[in-house]
Specification:
Largest sheet: 11 strands, antiparallel
Order of helices and strands: EEEEEEEHEHEEEH
Shape: globular
Oligomer: single chain
Distance between the termini: 48 Å
Helix content: under 10%
Structural class: mainly beta
Radius of gyration: 22 Å
Strand content: over 45%
Number of helices: 3
């Protein structure tokens, strides 16, 4: 679901295939979060922003290479929908299901109903297709470039204390580029992911950077899925300001 106060769409001559758009005022999008983990009570992500704009190219096979820019963005993680109500008992009915009702999922962020929020000054996202469409296994099917500037996270009261919580809640810059080799999986369920892996599917982390002010983490890497569909990851990371990082971990008691 998407809503905004005002939206503008433009077409670039001569072929009308370059589409630009922008929206202003009270922008809100509700995105579902697929998960099969009953212990994680998050069903959707709510994205709010003051302004959004972008562009994409309209190819014969659909939109291609979309670029997005959001300013003054707020991310909120929503609870699942209301639990199903139990129908009234019928003394003449035969109950074939004798298993007890599953317990309601707990909130890993505390006892209250609140979930974390993230404020972002600027968010840029590009979804690029180097080979369109992927013609064989192992072709680079999708490159994702993401940059977030001015990130400030808020955890609800009663949340479990996180290591380096003060630093992690004030990230100056986050930037990443990663490529998925194709063809892309047709879903996030086991059979689709297994087929993607068997056809050469993998993820290449081309660039990664997190700027925490006194500490900067950068690196590259790659990942595949093993026989049990679990990620097998190789990372090559560099930390600048590691002395500050270790000092803060010792000061907060995370390491002795």
């Amino acid at each position: 679901r998407f809503s905004a106060d005002r939206a503008v769409v433009g077409f670039q001559l001569p072929n009308f295939r370059h589409i630009t758009w922008e929206t202003h005022g009270d922008i809100k999008a509700v995105l579902p979060i697929p998960t099969n983990n009953p212990a994680l009570p998050i069903a959707q992500m709510i994205v709010e922003a003051d302004q959004a704009q972008g562009y994409f190219t309209l190819s014969d096979l659909g939109p291609r290479d979309p670029h997005l820019l959001f300013t003054d963005m707020r991310l909120r993680f929503g609870q699942p929908g209301l639990a199903q109500t139990t129908p009234p008992a019928d003394e003449n009915a035969i109950n074939l299901d004798q298993s007890p009702a599953p317990p309601a999922p707990g909130n890993p962020f505390g006892d209250g109903p609140s979930l974390p929020e993230v404020m972002v000054d600027e968010f840029r996202l590009a979804l690029l297709s180097p080979v369109w469409p992927p013609t064989k296994a192992g072709d680079p099917a999708l490159t994702i470039e993401a940059a977030l500037n001015g990130i400030d996270g808020t955890l609800p009261e009663g949340s479990t204390r996180l290591p380096l919580g003060d630093m992690a809640q004030g990230i100056e810059r986050f930037h990443t580029i990663f490529t998925l080799t194709g063809p892309l999986p047709q879903g996030v369920y086991a059979s689709a992911l297994g087929q993607w892996r068997d056809q050469g599917g993998a993820v290449s982390l081309d660039d990664f950077l997190v700027d925490l002010g006194d500490v900067t983490v950068a690196g590259t890497g790659n990942a595949t899925l093993d026989a049990a569909l679990q990620p097998a990851v190789n990372l090559d990371m560099m930390v600048e300001g590691h002395q500050v990082l270790v000092a803060r971990l010792v000061a907060e008691g995370t390491i002795p």
